Every structure is written in C-alpha cells, then in structure tokens.
Amino acid sequence: MDGHGGTLLPGLIDSHTHLTGAEDLESAVHWGVTTMLDMASRVPELVDSLRNRPGLPDILSCYYPASAPGSTQARMGFPASSIVNGPQDAERFVAQQLGFGADYIKLIIEDPAVRGSAALSSETVAALVEAAHRYNKKVFAHVTTPDAFSIGIDAGIDVLTHAPLGKPLPQDLVTTMVNKGVISVPTMVMMKQIAKKFGKINPVLLSLVMSKGIFRKLINMFKSESLNYHNVEETVRAFIQSGIPVIAGTDANTDPKSPLMLNQGESLHEELELMVKAGMSPVQALQSATSLPAKLFGLQDRGSIQTGTRADLILVDGNPTIDISATRAIKRVWAGGVQVRG
C-alpha cells in the first residue's frame, strides 16, 4: 500500500450519536468513525444487536435516558421505566441501565422555565448522579439553556452535551465548570442546524425541541427571541480558552421523530471544522475525536496509534494537522483490523 502524501490517523470517536439500525454503523465507518457513543435507545435489544460486529464501529450506550413524568422523552416511545419519579427512584433507574449493560448514564435536564415541560427536579438529578457514581459510571446530561447547565453543574454531572443558542453561557458557569472538571460535548453541528431550521423561537423552548419532540405548533407560537448559532460558537470559544475539555460529538441520527436528522459519520467532519472555527487548532480538533475522549471516558484501547490498541485507523490525503478539512479526503479505513474502505 502506498500512503505517500497522506496521513494515518486513529479511528474517529463520535461521542454523541443515536442509533436506529445497522445502516447507521455502515455510514459512520465509511467516514472513518470507528467508535460511537449512543445517547439514547428505546430498544435495548437493538443496541445489543449492533455491538461487536466485525468491520463496524464499536458501540457504547446509556440505553434509556432518565426523564421526568410527562416529559418529552416519555411521549416519544421510551418505556415507563425510563421515567424517574423523584430522588427515591434514582437507584432503581441506574440499576436498570446497568442491568442492560450501560457504559454510562444519561439524563435529560429540561429547563424548568419551559412552558409545558416536565423537568427532573434538581434533587432528582443529584440523586441520579450520586447513584451512578457509586457504580463508577460517568453521567452525561442533555442541557440547552443556562438554567439547565446550572442544574447539571451543581449536581456534579460529568459531561454536559449541547450548548445554548439563546445566549452564551455566562462566564461564572464556565468558571464553575472549570473548577469542577466538567466535560463539554457541544454538538455544534446539530446546534447550527437547529438554529438554521427553526429561526426565531423563545430559547426556553429549545430544551423541548432538542428532546426530539414534535413541536412545530409550539414553535410558531413562541417566535420571540432569536436562536443564534453565534452564541454556541461564543460559548465553545470560552470553553476552549478556559481549558474545559471539549469533545467531538454530533447528535447524528436517522430517527423520523427527530426534529432534525444528520448523516452518521459525515457530520463528525463538519463538527471538527466548526471546532476549528471556534478557536481550536486542527491538532486539538483531531484530539477531540480521538485521544481525548479515549482518555476521559476510559477507552484505553483506542484513540491513538500504538502497539496493543485496536486497529482502528484512517488514511487520508493531505495533512489534517494543518488543514482540518483533509479528514474528509479518506483513502482507507480499518475498523478493528478489518479494512472497510479503500
């Protein structure tokens, strides 16, 4: 094989995706994604059927996300057992996900100010975090407004996903994230598309929109304040400058119930480009999808090219450490040692 003029990279890790079938894995690996962190599934058996397939991405999952009674998730087909009925129910929920084989725990933190929302109380969020940490599991949380961020930070959430579109995250919350060692997966590509598609909407409704509900009627009723992607970019820039670990994740999905679908695999390359535009160096952006999530999420056998790690590799034309868009110029992909492209 002649790799002259190219760059060999570790397989990419998408740290926020949603799975609906094997075609998601096939699309992802075609674009060099060899590890996928599933952030919610209605059917545990589906996740299990997608694990350990030769030549396809390795799958990690939270299985069900925790949500409140009457929440958007509860109306989307997630089973009643995914609903957490107060702090006293936290242990039961966490034990159920671990029984499925969950690699981490996921919470939906909706903004209490959202009209018609059903949000987990701060006490319930704290109880879920405490229960998960007793089992040495990291906790990811869906947050899309500063108030939701605040609830998650105060409760000790490990990883906060998404970034606010209504206004930048206040500096005091950024500073607290630094002090507490909170990780960000801002899903910039999804936030950009949400802002583009929905235009003007009251920011407190974004929590519902991003929770994958059907809200077009509500959206038309609450066009009072712009959702501006610039706010996401400004927040992520503050994260980068403050030293908060920022991890690449897309929220890619092919779920017909989602307000916005994104191509698996291809969207991660756009995420890397958006990270560079927000202030990362190309090397930092590459690390956000390889060595950094491997280190922070305990994936010791991937994220780098060295003896003893998984043979998850991408050969690209050009040098993405200088021009991040070169990650798209894929010549060959190996997943678990199996050549799947090129």
Description of the molecule:
This protein is an alpha/beta fold and 342 residues long. It has 13 helices and eleven strands. α4 links the parallel β5 and β6. α4 crosses α5. The N and C termini lie close together (10 Å). 51% of the residues are buried.
Provide a brief overview of the structure.
This protein is 35% helix and 15% strand.
Annotation keywords:
4-stranded parallel beta sheet; 342 residues; alpha/beta; 4-stranded antiparallel beta sheet; single chain; 15% strand; 35% helix; 13 helices
Distance between the termini: 10 Å
Shape: globular
Q: Taking Cα atoms only, what radius of gyration do you get, to the nearest Å? A: 19 Å
Strand order of the largest sheet: 1-9-10-11
* Percent strand: 5-15%
Q: Count of helical segments? A: 13
List how many beta strands DSSP finds: 11
Following the backbone from N to C, one meets helices and strands in this order, namely EEHEHEHEHEHEHEHHHHHHHEEE
| Average pLDDT figure | 91
Helix/strand/pairing category = alpha/beta
| Main β-sheet description | 4 strands, antiparallel
Uncertain segments of ≥5 residues (pLDDT<50)? 212-224
